[in-house]
Amino acid sequence: MTYYPVILVDSSILVAYYSSRDAYHQSVRRFFEQCTSELVTSICCVTEVMYLLNFNWRTQNEFISDLAIELYHCIHLLPQDFIRIAELNEQYADLPGDFADLSLIAISERLNIAAIVTLDSDFDIYRRYRKQPFKRVVLPS
Fold it and tell me: Looking at the whole model, is its pTM more than 0.90?
């Protein structure tokens, strides 16, 4: 696995990690066991994960506890991020852009984070600063 000091974490990875029924659960678990990078997500992704984990309050609370001990750094959006998200929403209207995904693009640009771990193929299409692709972190097999 290539080392990146900071990696954005998409909702899809978090859901796969906390849901043992997910097809990617084992490879995502191995990723987290091996990863020494700082992991960053957005409050939008946290909201999405909580919704998708609604099958079990204990699982939701495990996720919340990991946020509390800063296993993941939850970045809040700033006013300029919302302006950028609106631009991205128009740019990717044909996908359509998911708010949580677009929040990660805005954060990646503001904090200059190129690496992302995700199961979402839209990140193969999304571009940072309108032209730079994300550096997708490959999950261990």
Answer: yes
